[in-house]
Amino acid sequence: MIFHRAVRREFTQTAIGVFVALFAILLTTQLIRLLNEAAVGSVASEAVAALLGFSALNYLPVLLSLTLFMAILLTLSRSYRDSEMVVWFSSGLPLTAWVRPVLAFALPVVAAIALLSLLLSPWALSKSAEFRQKVTDRSDSSQVAPGAFKEATTADRVVFVEALSDDASQVRNVFVSSMQDGQLGVMMAAGGHQEHAPNGDRFMVLENGRRYEVTPGSPEFRIVDFARYALRVETKESQGIEKTPKNTSTRELLRHPANPANMAELLWRIGVPISALVLALLAIPMSFVNPRAGRSSNLIMALLIYAIYSNLLSVSQAWVAQGKMSFDAAWWPIHLLMLALLPLLFFRRIALHSLFSFRR
């Protein structure tokens, strides 16, 4: 029991260090991407922090899977380098005896990965898409800057205002150019403001202005004076967020088993926690380090196997999405193949240890 507690403590300490390093890399890369989107105007600057949080939550299942694998691998490799494994084998304990403490540490982490992959990750993607729309779908009058032409994000309109009120709810001397039903409309108004209809629709209301309507290529045009003109802002929010398999809940995916894209996404969500458990077991035989040889060879081989495993899951997901394979035939063969490597690696490691001990 004392040994198991010590091993779990070392696993935990190593996992925390690995997770902090990987999480810092993840946050840095995602922050750079979001800042680049904010610089080009596709994301509002005030939305960067929230979107960064949603993005981090989405990538946590893969991050925890890699953390679990690396924590077990590094801990056992240190035991080889410090000759603690020599004491372990000299006590008559086989390498397979490590399976129990590794599973005791890995199973709670795998459960957390399953929760994140099946529930929280799609929720984060859905909330991220919803938050993007709430920020992007502001009224045209609050999006424009005084003295600058601004193309509206929700319609074929170009808006120019001379001045804004302090709370950006009122505009003065407005120019709006829009294309609707093949007609070019140009409006000029002394002022304007934003209104919300009882059903939730948004309108930009122009006051005391004039509208010119002309059909491109035709000499005919029409002039209309108005005291009040309401432009309906066709927000994406009113149409609902764009549903994709990635931001769809697992329950909804199960309701549409005939959709290959849904089944491909479900395959990935199920595959992440299963692969995390398999990799945790594979880390035991792959952690062997010869103290007299290089210390990085086993780490390179382990990362290569991780990359192959992950890529095979991605390939099977793509095949299911393309209809080349069914979900029932695609979700298990890769995991079974990697599990088949487990007894082979254990046998090879035990055989090499026995040969080494015999020569000594």
TrEMBL record:
**Where, per UniProt, does this protein localize?**
Cell inner membrane
Q: Which GO terms describe its cellular component?
A: ATP-binding cassette (ABC) transporter complex
**What GO biological process terms are annotated to this protein in UniProt?**
lipopolysaccharide transport; transmembrane transport
Q: Where is the signal peptide?
A: none
Q: Does the keyword Cell membrane apply?
A: yes
- InterPro entries, alphabetically? LptF (IPR030922), LptG/LptF_permease (IPR005495)
- The transmembrane residues are 12-35, 47-76, 97-120, 266-288, 300-320, 332-351
Keywords of this protein's UniProt record, alphabetized? Answer: Cell inner membrane, Cell membrane, Membrane, Transmembrane, Transmembrane helix, Transport
Q: Which domain of life is it from?
A: Bacteria
Keyword Transmembrane helix: yes or no? yes
Pfam families registered for this protein in UniProt: LptF_LptG
User: From the record, what ranges are coiled-coil?
Assistant: none
Name listed for the protein in its UniProt record: Lipopolysaccharide export system permease protein LptF
